[in-house]
## 1
Amino acid sequence: MARFPNRSSAPNRWYTITVLFLILRNIVMVRPEDGPHENTLGLIADDDIFAPLNDGCLRFAGGSKGASSFKVALFADLHFGENAWSDWGPQQDLNSVKVMSTILDIESPDFVVYLGDVITANNLPIHNASFYWDQAISPTRDRNIPWASLFGNHDDAPFEWPIDWFSSSGIPQILCSSAHDFGGDKCSFKGTTRLELMRDERRRNSLSYTGFGPRNLWPSVSNYVLTIVSPKSDSKSPVMLMYFLDSGGGSYPEVISTIQSEWFRNKSQKMNPDSSIPEIVFWHIPSQAYKNAAKKAAPRRAQCVGSMFEERVAAQEAEMGMMKLLKERPSVKAIFVGHNHGLDWCCPYEKMWLCYARHTGYGGYGNWARGARILEIIDEPFSLKSWIRMENGTLHSEVVLST
Ligand SMILES: [Zn+2]
């Protein structure tokens, strides 16, 4: 979710610094399109197209230290690219880079998940919104940490013309036609599609594990599975499966469709037929079950951790079978969502946990302090722990999600 704050746009020195920063970023982001997984949209198979890097396998750091933990940082609701024609928009992107950098340096995760609303496309009059997407992933890439991303409801939302532009102040100078050499004809208001954003991320980055789902799931795109494999270098045995789903919004309704549920059912049965491998699931917009979990917990906050009452759960528009499938699988340990910037709770629900991430970006609505949810997976014996790491370095809401 995002709302554009009505902030003052008094010019100050930050504007100049910010423009310089963006130009530099633009230069840095032009890397050779080096991905071994590079492909073209012409090669579309009926099954999963553009499978994630290395067959979607992620290994514990291992090495001589024999590391037995695998740490994942969740960056949610960054909302890059807001109000590029003002001073506060670019400034808040710099602030978001700072949040991510601080958390990456404190936690040193093995992997990062970008949990949707990476950009606020409905506030971006730009030909290719990958320009801002790339800025959002840069702190992770700069530290050589692999990552995966999925879509939120703002990532491909159509541009919303600000009413102010039709007043006496008129249409402001738009950065994409001046500062970034994108040329006037490339300053577009049509938006950038999910497929274009994902294709650009993969083509430019050999560290991206993001995958496309099969074509029959479109317009939902970010549907794929990654496997965390054993730290023992001679073993390919899975320690945990991570499912990524597109919960819609933006260019189509906020929902996980019946056909996506069917895809999950087939995929999970194929990869984990006896439910012996622990599984976790990521998407952006909470399912309606989150409302029930919060309601049940409200009187006593029984077993829940984190911020529960800053705002109401803003759930998907409908439930089309996904939750039923997840409830039936004993291997599903937790679901992680973003979307509600004021919530960061985890609550038990049936045999699993429903968790929010933590609003990481300075973009989007709300001024709650920024942070990130961290997951720690331990092998032999398996355990899954989580906590919130804040921008100021403090830690809270530690919880054991599975042992
Ligand atoms: Zn959001």
Note: The chain has seven helices and 13 strands.
## 2
Amino acid sequence: MVARGAPLEPTELELPAPRENEILIAAEACGVCRTDLHVLDGELPDIHCPLTLGHEVVGTVVEAGPAVERFRAGDRVGVPWLAHTCGVCPYCRAGHENLCLAASFTGYTRDGGYAEQMLADARYCLPLPSGPAAELAPLLCAGLIGYRAYRAAGEATRLGLYGFGAAAHLLAQVARCEDRRVFAFTRPGDRSAQRFAIDLGAVWAGGSDERAPEPLDAAILFAPVGALIPQALAAVRPGGRVVCAGIHMSDVPSFPYRLLWGERQVSSVANLTRRDGAEFMELAGRLKLRAQVERFALADANRALERLRGGEVTGAAVLEMPGSPSVAGTEARP
Ligand SMILES: [Zn+2]
Ligand SMILES: [Zn+2]
């Protein structure tokens, strides 16, 4: 990323040898997340250019710094959004490192994984379940931070998911395993996303302008559309929760207090903790969670971003790096 709003450009960078707790990683695949668009569009504060986007990285350790104990060369690792925390602020000390006042973030305040190689702090990287890199990459944000939102939604049996993209299609699989009933809300008229949701076990799918057939216990908003907050509040029962999972949303329009009345709650989830990461990867391995992905070559990152922006991706968009096993396999075919 050379400038806000400008198309990404390929660049050659010389990476230094990994220091202390760092690992040098050969990336195999990197998920393309809605947050990447918010960074690219300058909707988040303190964006420094040039910057390499990407915070759902699956790769192999090439070299480990002298203090690294968890991983060694050849290990497969996942690099999530949370890149580093201070460890001493009140949030870090209280176990809420996701709110750290001095945190840094992969592909936002640090270079990320739209790259052939990257450096990361090994203490924030995650071991992964086995599987193809491209199908695991979306677990690292869509799955992981989506799951934080899912837990924040509480014991909801009837769960609304607004925006049926990368995160929702993974959570629908988790919800089905836990006997919850998913109600999927897509862009009005997006029949293919609605079919996709039903295929993944949703009991109902419709446009965000439609009413669910019954009151919901909770709703999670993945679409970055503030106007969905009053709509979701109108869809949940008294005592129900509306959880906003995105890092950025358009402004929330004013709405009558009666939508919030009845002890309904609106909250957001921010980032992840390393504990979230460990718990979710364990769950993903146990449930054999797999993302349904649309694959792009690294060189096609701009096209992947524009398809995501246009709501054209089914499941998750993932970049595959030159030299990663699946890409090499593709090239070897006659
Ligand atoms: Zn901190
Ligand atoms: Zn993300």
Note: Confidence is low (pLDDT under 50) at residues 328-334.
